[in-house]
Amino acid sequence: MTTIVQQLQVDRLQVEVYPDRAIMGVQAARQAAAHLRQLLATQPEVRIIFAAAPSQNEFLAALASTPDIDWSRVTAFHMDEYIGLSDRATQRFSAWLTRHLMQRVQPGKVHLIPSQGDPDTICADYLRLIQRAPIDMVCLGIGENGHLAFNDPPVADFDDPQGMKAVQLDEICRQQQVNDGCFATLTDVPSHALTLTIPTLMAAHRLFCIVPGKNKRQAVSTTLRGPIATTCPATILRRHPGCTLFTDSDAFQEPEHG
């Protein structure tokens, strides 16, 4: 029996709606794992960029428990990191992703973004690693303000000349980190971060976008029905030839008619 609630296409974007985030995470992981196995059958290495956020919990848990994946031939990256957090700070995205995925599956190569050091140097060094070969897959989410990685509306650029950059975080984005339970108060959330830019993410061959929860309802609605514009950066996903948006009934809202 199928668990999918609704399936639709918006421009080039495939959308799958599931009854809850648990089922959504399992189904997204099943499709991502199938694609990963397919790639591993035809090429020596698979390069994947992961998002680090609570919205990815169910997806990453299901992916990590999927059998018969040769993770030793996977090179893993992540898409953003706070600037200035201590190396011991548990809120670092590198630390979060290590706990939720890397320690469990042990990819052959893991490239983490440092949170301390000169931002320009970190971006240049990390981008060199990213650009050594094509990125096969990106597993990402959408922020409450429609951001992709830390490309918030004020700094998002669909034709960004930079592949990675330092940015000032939008207040809505910073508040989301509090809403997600990552920080106790808004003042605890760093004001600046490093992020892969939208062209870097969009250059990947296949995108799996996982977006559950009622807090994402407005972002999902605008992504699917708003104009393709940096006021909601995620709308650019509608132009990607190989992106699937996995969402749940809490986040997906039927359009109003009349």
Automatic annotation (TrEMBL):
Any GO molecular function: identical protein binding
Limits of the Glucosamine/galactosamine-6-phosphate isomerase domain: 24-240
Which SUPFAM superfamilies does the record cross-reference, listed alphabetically? NagB/RpiA/CoA transferase-like
The highest taxon in the source lineage is Bacteria
Q: Which InterPro entries match?
A: Glc/Gal-6P_isomerase, Glucosamine6P_isomerase, NagB/RpiA_transferase-like
One GO BP annotation of this record: glucosamine catabolic process
Q: Name one GO cellular component term.
A: cytoplasm
Question: Which segments does the entry list as coiled coil?
Answer: none
The cross-references to PANTHER family, in alphabetical order and at most eight, read: GLUCOSAMINE-6-PHOSPHATE ISOMERASE, GLUCOSAMINE-6-PHOSPHATE ISOMERASE NAGB
Write down what this protein is called: Glucosamine-6-phosphate deaminase
Q: Which organism is it from?
A: Erwinia typographi
